[in-house]
């Protein structure tokens, strides 16, 4: 991991960027003047603030994500299930995935609220690399799905082919993902609590730490999903600007 990469930045500068004047040129479902509805969470990028709703179901988030691995690579730390039909990928979110796209969403299940990321799409030739730095993560939550994180079945150590890097101690996390053709990467963090404010600093493609080291491919779209599991609103995001996901309304001063 190259700690001198351009993705390294301070929490203070990130919070200023998220809430203070970065222009967002991509299309989204609502503009900067959106009013608060019955949603209790908002997504902020630059001057744009959008009320969002978690996707909901009665399944725990790890079951909803359905991270498939060969049975011998399943362990408690990765939250995976052993299934050979689709491997090294999220089978449960296939209907939400899009080619060359990274998605994020809140998920409300029987064990609480989770923040979920899925990069790439099953069955499509869209390998890639992403680095996310996440700030102010709740310290009593945990990553219940780590895609990818898997052992060498012969040694029990993390496999040499597991290229992803997870630095998730404390309240500031950094994850370096890279995935091959037809697979996905991502994860699910459960335990956001009743009130939270998480900032995500993205680094896609050439800006990602592992870009070009193992796989070739590009992410061209970053989307935040809001609504239900069967019909989601897709909010387009700038690839090179941080986002903030927090409880409250668009009129609240969180900084």
Straight-line distance between termini: 31 Å
Number of helices: 2
The residue fraction in helices comes out at under 10%
Order of H and E elements? HEEEHEEEEEEEEEEEEEE
Uncertain segments:
1-13, 20-38
| Category from helices, strands and their pairing | mainly beta
Overall residue-averaged pLDDT value: 86
3D structure, described in words:
By secondary structure, the chain is mainly beta. It contains two helices and 17 strands. Helices cover 5% and strands 37% of the residues. It has one domain (11-22, 38-247). β11 (165-167) and β12 form a beta hairpin.
Quick structural gist:
The protein is mainly beta. It is built from 2 helices and 17 strands.
